[in-house]
Design a protein that fits this description.
single chain, 171 residues, alpha+beta, four-stranded antiparallel β-sheet, 65% helix, aspartyl protease, Lipoprotein signal peptidase, transmembrane helix
Length: 171
């Protein structure tokens, strides 16, 4: 249980960092020149995303808000279930990261009407270069990866146990 409290604290710090960065980004004037970091590989800019990822369904406010809220509620319910479970620490870590990202973006979506994105990457392709993220987006992606890895590890472990049991019976 103590590990889960640490994980929750870490996720809360990431949530706070993202909200702070979004606040600072919103203080910038629209159209302000993007800043380059790490030799121009990382770009800091201000983008308002009115849809889902990559502005999908932009202009469909009710669908975007409703879908985001429903996904957030389902994620929160699963997260609470994992918190009180004695197993599933890795799944809990994944959902904690995802929840941090979801809450940050939900806050934006309902408070501002759009999600503030501010991290881009240098790329030769202008379509890829214009894609912009925030810390919450990275939390969602990392959390999904941790959750998938935890589930895959569980499946592999289950298969190995089944095979070992089968081998013991033949001995």
């Amino acid at each position: 249980m103590r590990m889960k409290k640490w994980i929750t604290g870490f996720a809360a710090i990431l949530l706070g960092a993202d909200l702070f960065c979004k606040y600072r980004t919103e203080q910038k004037a629209d159209g302000e020149k993007e800043k380059e970091l790490f030799g121009g590989k990382v770009l800091i800019r201000k983008v308002h995303n009115h849809g889902f990822a990559l502005n999908v369904l932009s202009g469909e406010d009710r669908i975007v808000k409703g879908g985001s809220l429903l996904a957030g509620i389902l994620l929160l319910c699963y997260h609470v279930k994992l918190f009180f479970s004695k197993k599933g620490t890795w799944k809990f870590a994944g959902t904690s990261l995802m929840l941090a990202g979801a809450l940050s973006n939900l806050y934006d979506r309902f408070r501002r009407g759009y999600v503030v994105d501010y991290i881009g990457f240098a790329a030769a392709d202008p379509q890829i270069r214009k894609i912009t993220f925030n810390i919450g987006d990275f939390c969602l992606m990392a959390g999904a990866a941790v959750l998938a890895a935890a589930q895959a590890a569980r499946s592999v472990t289950k298969e190995i146990r089944k095979e070992v049991k089968k081998q013991r019976k033949t001995l």
